[in-house]
């Protein structure tokens, strides 16, 4: 299973999201997180500029802004 986390540089919430998603990765054996810098793609920048960080699975948004590991874990376990 792969999650995607949309981020940008100089983003305190993005750094916190990485810490929370490290916990999620440790919780599940078969999970990885791909980090995508939205500034590398104008379409992503337009879509997520005011929402980063954004965590998705199969293009479905799980959570944005203040990411917490419990919400992400609950979502994955509900699949």
Automatic annotation (TrEMBL):
Pfam families: Glrx-like. InterPro entries: Glutaredoxin-like (IPR008554), Glutaredoxin-like_YDR286C (IPR052565), Thioredoxin-like_sf (IPR036249). PANTHER family: GLUTAREDOXIN-LIKE PROTEIN C5ORF63 HOMOLOG. This is Glutaredoxin. The lineage of its organism: Bacteria, Bacillati, Bacillota, Bacilli, Bacillales.
């Amino acid at each position: 299973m792969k999650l995607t986390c949309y981020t940008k540089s100089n983003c305190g919430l993005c750094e916190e999201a990485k810490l929370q998603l490290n916990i999620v990765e440790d919780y599940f054996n078969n999970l990885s997180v791909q980090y995508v810098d939205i500034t590398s793609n104008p379409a992503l920048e337009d879509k997520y500029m005011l929402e980063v960080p954004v965590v998705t699975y199969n293009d479905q948004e799980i959570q944005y802004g203040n990411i917490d590991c419990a919400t992400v874990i609950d979502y994955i376990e509900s699949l």
